[in-house]
Design brief:
It contains 18 helices and 20 strands. It is an alpha/beta fold and about 525 residues long. Bound molecules: adenosine-5'-triphosphate (ATP).
């Protein structure tokens, strides 16, 4: 890798971007020293993604300049960004699942390594990069067979193959196990040693403190602070982001679980391809307890939430709830489960929680539109819906508090607040919660966690699925671990730690336990 030729790999001056009434970026200045890891933090809607989209050419700034290695560049699209040596690893991977790693990496790559040297040259270059940065990838593996952590490394390889010297990672650890996240940070370290500059967007201050050299803080579209990481701490960063002191710990009393509110007995689910996704799941949720489900994404957690919430019919087994026995022969759909007082915060807010073309006040009653509160004589009572939406936006600090804004145009965290508020405010007896704080900032996490604890205090039964082990450990009273469609272990939260859970999630506990 070439030695940096300028102290700043990238420098932004006076970048502004407006979307209608929203000033998403305002006069942003940023200097990222070459060969460093630079964190960008900020609340939901602070403008981080907009800024990165400008650097990567998805949006053009209204004003301001971008310099790479001291040279001003015009970035009108992602091809320009790639030419300027910028690579981006998105939250949602952009890989062709049934292609191999090699095919994915060379797909669409410009410059014609393939043309000049054929596949062999491409393979050689990949092997070099793969080794240089300890990526640990088999370039002939088919992407769909790879766990998420490896798919992410394929994205990194793809960017490096295209000559990236500045790599932007947007919330990279959201879907990783702790072990995969550790590996990612080792890779970032290797990148840095080779002179690559990394920009890391994350809501996790622990990651910022552990892996960055400098950190910049955004609030309400502006860059409000820059800090050398070694000279700051979690509390200061949280306060800079939110503009006030933030409690970083969940406060809760000892649980006093009461009667069983939901019991799943021997549930199995075989999908339309004939693949068994859930195997003999047995679990009970009691009033006044939070049961956490830990697991690497894709091990049946989503299917479990879908089956329990009535979205997907189970293949065998029974669910007992509110005096009803639900079986494959006597199923209940999602609306009927809602009538039994089940709330569901789905994992994927885009696909299942919202209709992104709807305005916020419409999305705020999705699934509850038959509620008499919103029912006019012929049409829905728009005023009642708007009033309620306005009130909830205040209570849940949704930004901007505009019930007419299309849900697609809220930042990820604010979309999440709209969904959670809708489900929690209906006061369910049983609440299924999937990834409640994915992509949500520290202030909003505090609020969401408080609400979930309040429901527990009010004797609700809560099933929490999250890839965030901190969250599972902080909120749950009991933790179940899922692997390959089965519950492979259970621990009281008081006995759980990250390493133990991480190993159980990889179903490696016994082997490592034996060798430790
Ligand atoms: N295409 C768009 N049209 C209208 N408004 C937008 C658009 N994209 C972003 N915004 C608004 O710009 C502001 C900044 O959003 P942005 O996504 O950059 O924030 P963020 O800091 O990345 O948030 P998060 O952490 O939730 O991802 C928000 O108020 C958002 O609603």
């Amino acid at each position: 890798m070439n030695k940096p030729t300028h102290p700043y790999a990238i420098e932004l001056r006076g970048i502004s971007k407006r979307f209608g009434a929203v000033q998403a970026n305002k006069d942003i200045n940023l200097q990222v020293p070459a060969g460093t890891v630079h964190g960008i933090i900020g609340e939901n809607g602070a403008g981080k993604s907009t800024l990165m989209s400008i650097i990567y050419g998805f949006y053009e700034a209204d004003s301001g300049t971008i310099e790479i290695d001291g040279q001003e560049v015009k970035i009108r699209n992602s091809q320009d960004a790639i030419k300027a040596g910028i690579g981006m690893v998105h939250q949602h991977f952009m890989l062709v699942e049934n292609f191999t790693v090699l095919e994915n990496v060379i797909l669409g790559a410009e410059g014609g390594t393939i043309l000049k040297g054929g596949m062999d040259a491409a393979r050689k270059e990949l092997a070099r990069l793969e080794q240089e940065f300890s990526l640990d990838i088999d370039v002939d593996a088919v992407v769909e067979d790879l766990p998420v952590g490896l798919q992410q490394r394929v994205e990194i390889l793809k960017a490096l193959y295209r000559g990236a010297r500045i790599l932007i990672l947007d919330e990279p650890t959201g879907v990783l196990t702790p072990q995969e996240a550790d590996h990612l940070f080792r890779i970032l370290d290797a990148l840095k040693k080779q002179g690559v500059t990394v920009i890391l967007i994350t809501h996790k201050l622990r990651e910022i403190l552990a892996s960055t050299d400098n950190v910049s803080v955004m609030r309400l579209g502006q860059m409000v602070a820059h800090r050398e990481t070694a000279k700051t701490e979690k509390e200061e960063l949280a306060e800079l982001m939110v503009g006030k002191k933030v409690r970083l710990k969940v406060l809760k009393e000892e649980a006093e679980p009461a009667e069983v509110k939901l019991a799943a007995k021997n549930i199995s689910y075989v999908d339309s391809q004939g693949v068994t996704r859930l195997k003999n799941i047995n679990l009970e949720l009691r009033a006044g307890e939070i049961v956490g489900i830990a697991g690497v994404s894709g091990n049946g957690q989503s299917e479990l939430l879908n089956v329990l919430s009535g979205i997907t019919p189970m293949s065998s087994g029974e669910v007992h709830m509110a005096g009803q026995v639900i079986t494959p022969k006597a199923p209940k759909n999602a609306a009927q489960m809602r009538d039994l007082k089940m709330g569901h915060i789905p994992e994927d807010r885009h696909k299942m929680g919202l209709v992104t073309g709807f305005e916020a006040y419409e999305a705020a009653v999705l699934g509850y539109h038959n509620d008499p509160a919103y029912n006019g004589k012929i049409f829905l009572n728009r005023k009642a819906m708007l009033d309620e939406c306005n009130e909830r936006m205040q209570d849940w600090d949704v930004r901007p508090p505009n019930p007419h804004l299309k849900t697609a145009n809220f930042s990820g965290g604010n979309q999440q607040k709209i969904v959670i508020a809708r489900e929690v405010e209906k006061n369910p007896d049983v609440l299924l919660v999937g990834q409640p704080t994915r992509g949500v900032d520290i202030g909003a996490i505090e609020n969401i966690h408080e609400q979930i604890i309040k429901l527990r205090v009010a004797d609700k039964a809560i099933l929490l699925v999250s890839v965030e082990l901190d969250e599972i450990m902080a909120l749950s009273d009991r933790i179940l671990v899922m692997f390959d469609g089965e519950i492979v272990g259970e621990l009281p939260a008081s006995e759980a730690d990250e390493r133990t859970l991480g190993l159980m999630m990889a179903n490696a506990f016994n082997e490592e336990g034996a060798s430790a």
